[in-house]
Amino acid sequence: MMGRLLEEISWEGGRVKQYRKGGQGMENVLSAQVLQALDHLPRDRFLGAVLRDAHGATSARMRVAEEAEVLELTFLPDEVLLTCHDAKVQPDATLTGPSSYCLVEAKGPGRSRFNTLQLSREYLALLEQAGERTPLMLLVLGAPPPVRLAGGGVHNPVDVIARELGQLAPVVLDARNEAALVARVPEVLAWTTWREIADVVMRQVKSIDTSDRSVASAIGRVASSLVRAVDWHSSARP
């Protein structure tokens, strides 16, 4: 995971200076720290709990959570070519299970914005990649919705995807497909926040019941590293 982060940073060009002082406030650094911790902690007790405590798309979230122990977590996966729109998308992470597929899009704790058509393109890419598996699009945000858009204003992410699908329809969708895709958004789109993830993790640590002090200490250290990362990045100046 750290290797993928370093590879991503190497393409930043002049922006690489923003990673000085540990990359505080940089969403891909925070994402790497949090996802690595969730990958190492007991999956069902922690990653599964994060998914179960998120918001929206309940059925899809529960399906992904059920497969927490066997999910393949990929941080900064290769770009996906959206075949119906000749565009590429790169989510922050994917969680791949036997019968589920989750695309994770994370935004930093500051005033991060979604680019134009970003959410709708990722939604379409998710459905393509999921195939017959249950799709879930999980937004990890600095604060609960509404979300900020690059074009200005704050909006409900479900409404954003619906509106952007309307913009894409003349190019890649017919009216029937557009209506079906718009209707499906609430079944697929979920969200949580960095703070909620940290709170769930600390709650789960307190519920761990093991007689092996070394195991308990190891779990506590990894969980604490996640909480410290959220606290540290959240304290960055916008």
Summarize this structure briefly.
The protein has 238 residues and is an alpha/beta fold. 49% of the residues lie in helices and 16% in strands.
Descriptive labels:
238 residues; alpha/beta; five-stranded mixed beta sheet; two-stranded antiparallel sheet; 9 helices
What does this structure look like?
There is one protein chain. The chain has nine helices and nine strands. The chain is of the alpha/beta class and 238 residues long. It has one domain. Strand 5, helix 5 and strand 6 form a beta-alpha-beta unit. The chain starts with a helix and ends with a helix. The mean pLDDT is 91.
Number of DSSP helical runs: 9
Helix content: 40-55%
Q: Give the helix/strand class.
A: alpha/beta
Number of domains: 1
**Mean pLDDT over the residues:** 91
Shape: globular
Largest sheet: 5 strands, mixed
- Strand line-up across the major sheet: 1-4-5-6-9
Task: State the low-pLDDT regions, or none.
Answer: none
Alpha-carbon Rg, integer: 18 Å
Please give the number of β-strands.
Answer: 9
Q: Which percent range describes the beta-strand content?
A: 15-25%
